[in-house]
Amino acid sequence: MLADIFFTRTHTVRGWIDRWEAEGVQGLEIRPGRGLKPSINAEDVSLVASIREEVALTPQNLRDVVERLNARWNRSLTIKQLKNFLKKTEVQLASLS
After folding, report:
1. How crowded is residue 72: how many other Cβ atoms within 10 Å of its Cβ?
2. Nearest to residue 17, comparing CAs of 27, 8, 32, 30?
């Protein structure tokens, strides 16, 4: 079975076949916009400024930073999401303190 060979679900293989039949080889290309969207938008200037302020207050305790951000912005961010955002935006925790 193809799903076993490619280590995926049969639903995924059915999608591949449907796209192949409808669009040919182009239907199998990776499309933009797929995947999970980031929980923090770097273009949201006020949120990014708030993140920088909060991290500057307690750069060694991201749990407190996440709690304050969630309360202030009515979100459900996790420490991992915050760390990923800080890595992607190349914000160095040490330089903020």
Report:
1. 12
2. 27
